[in-house]
Amino acid sequence: MISLAGIPAQQLAAAAEDNMAVHASWAQERLPGARVERDAGLVLVDSGLPCDTFNFVLRARLDGGTAEARVAQAIDHFRRAGRPFSWWVGPADEPENLGDLLRAAGLEAAESEVGMAAELPALRADHEAPRGLAIARVRTPAQLRDFARLLAANWTPPDPHVVRFYEMAAPALLSDDAPLWLYVGYLGDTPVATSELTVGGGVAGLYNITTVPSHRRQGIGRALTLRPLLDARAAGLRLAILQASADGLGLYAQIGFVATGQITEYKPPGEAAP
Fold first, then answer.
1. Which of 88, 118, 140, 216 is the most exposed place for a label (fewest CB within 10 A)?
2. What's the CA gap between 48 and 28, in Å, rounded?
3. What pTM, to 2 d.p., does this model score?
C-alpha cells in the first residue's frame, strides 16, 4: 500500500472502508424493514430484500480472540433471514486472517478488485465528453428510475430487486443532504450510463459506474467517472477512492488513480456474481 496527500497507507485504507460503509448503509438505514448494525467491530447491512447487492458485512475491526464468534454471528443473521449477502474484506480489515475465518465458516471468495486512490487537485480532467452526451445529477424521481433500471440491467434478466430498492430509497436519495450523489448519462432522451459518488470517511468514493453494452468504448464511462470527481473537488474534497475490476484499471490510471490494495468479496456457496 502507498500513501497519498500525506495520509499513511493504513489510514487511507481505513478511510476507503469507512466510505464504503456509508455507500452500503446510508440509504438502508432509512428504509422501513431494513436493519443496520454498526459498532466498533463490524458494519452489518440487511436491506430486507433478497438481493446481495444491498446486503453486506464490511469494515471489520475484530479482536482475534472473538473474531470467529463474530463471524459466525453475522453469517447466522443472514442464514436465519434467508437472504443472500456479501462480505467485503479490504486492506484495513482485522484480524489479518479474516479471509481464512470466512472460508472456515463456509463462505467462498467470489471476486477480487483493486482498491485505488487519487488526489483530486491533481486530477487529469482534460477529457472531452462524447458529442451529444448530457450528464445529469439525479434530482428527480424519473432520473432515479433511469439510474435504477440501468443498474438492474447488469443482470440477465434485469434484477427487479434493484429497481425496488431505489423506489423504496427515493425519498432519502433525493434529499438535499444525501451523501450519495447519483448521476445518469443521456444521449438524447436515452439513458446510457450511470455513476455514483459517496461522501464519507473524509474522501469521495466512486461506485456503480456502468455503461450499456451498445455504447461502451466511446468515452462515456470516462465522462461519467470524471463528472462526479470534479464535483467532489469543487466541494473541497481532496482524495477519491474506488474499486476497479481488471477492465477498468487502465482507464482509472490514466485519470490519476494508483493502486492501494486488494478488496475481496466473499459469499455463501452458489451466490454468483452478475
1. 140
2. 9
3. 0.94
Question: How far, in Å, CA of 115 to CA of 10, rounded?
Answer: 13
What DSSP assignment string belongs to the chain? Answer: ---BTTB-HHHHHHHHHHHHHHHHHTTGGGSTT-EEEE-SS-EEEE-SSS-TTS-EEE--B--TTTHHHHHHHHHHHHHHHT---EEEE-TT-BSTTHHHHHHHTT-EEEEEEEEEEEEGGG-----PPPTTEEEEE--SHHHHHHHHHHHHTTSSS--HHHHHHHHHHHHHHTSTT-SEEEEEEEETTEEEEEEEEEEETTEEEEEEEEE-GGGTTSSHHHHHHHHHHHHHHHTT--EEEEEE-GGGHHHHHHHT-EEEEEEEEEE-TT----
If phi > 0 it is left, if psi is from -120 to 50 it is alpha, else beta; for residue 256 that is: left
Q: Is the pLDDT of residue 6 over 70?
A: no
Q: Decide if 181 contacts 173 (C-beta within 8 A).
A: no
The pLDDT value given to residue 274: 47
Exposed, middle or buried by CB within 10 Å (0-12, 13-18, 19+), for 224?
A: buried
Give the model confidence (pLDDT) of 95-133 as tens digits.
Answer: 999 999 999 999 999 999 999 999 999 888 777 788 899
